[in-house]
Design goal:
The chain is an all-alpha fold. The protein has one domain. It is built from 3 helices and no strands. The protein is rod-shaped.
Amino acid sequence: MSEKHHEELPEIIRRKVDQRLQGAREKPGVLFLGLGLFGTVGWTIALPAVLGTFLGRWLDTLYPGSISWTLTGLLLGLAGGCFVAWRWLERQRGVKQ
């Protein structure tokens, strides 16, 4: 390594450290915010799907037939959960703008 590269290395390191410190000041907890958002959306979709499946399974025991109430409950719960999550995300996006 030449002498010029030895002189540039501390400057490069200082700039990188400054960039990271500035990023930490500007965006505190972005990682945790993203994980929280991911968890909220996941539960918003998963819970209605699971509840719909259990309801459908119960209906299958009461009314057996050609219609699979378990599958119907799963799909309705999944669709409802996706709709609720989408609406919630749209409201969150509107608040931040």
